[in-house]
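Sat 14:20. Reprocessing the chain from the morning session after the first attempt stalled halfway. Input below, unchanged.
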Amino acid sequence: MKAPPSETATRDPLLRLAGINTFYGAVQVHFDVSIEIGAGRIVCLLGGNASGKSTAMKVILGLVRPRSGSIWFDGEPIHGVPTQEIIRRGIASVPEARRLFPAMTVRENLLMGAYARSDKRRVAEDQARVLDLFPRVGERLNQRAGTLSGGEQQMVAMARALMSRPRLICMDEPTMGLSPLFVDRVLDLISAINRQGTTVFMVEQNASLALQVAHHAYVLQTGRIVLEGPARALLHDARIREAYLGGEVAA
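Finished this time. Tokens:
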């Protein structure tokens, strides 16, 4: 895997969560969570299961509405905005477990990523660009998505997200359930996507992998941000190593 570019000067964030408090019924999931994602960066949110990290992704996409706090994308508020409008504004998703349409071909799945677009010429151009980045996907365009391996499905899910021409891609556990070979390949592709200009927000449980490709990281524990900083620094932080790298990650 290629190392991420060095830290650059701070700019206004492309996405900002400010003081987010989220509930499922009477149970509070987030406690004043604040996260900033700079344009052109890879930012990861680390945490074990039940820490609230996947819910953070759903909050950004408008699938779960926080009880209080605000969400800003490119300087405009998006809290309360419908999911389809959030996608149109330039945020795409690579959900946990890929969520492909298994009976549809790979080509059809890719085009679903561009369903909100009417610029057919540019859609065709983007498909060519995506297939250049994901040649393995190109080899399977006429194959049903449900017959692909887990790693191949993850590549299709990433390629589908790019078909909307997003400014920000949110990825939920992109390495979960993949073989070591595909884990490295997926992380390389995340770096490649970012080098081409797309900002990436990645929710991950595997801290050692995420911190190798990210620029900045936040650690979420029982709904609270307990640690944040440059990814390279956190990779060698004793608190991270004790919590994540020295043994099993909490389930």
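The radius of gyration is 18 Å.
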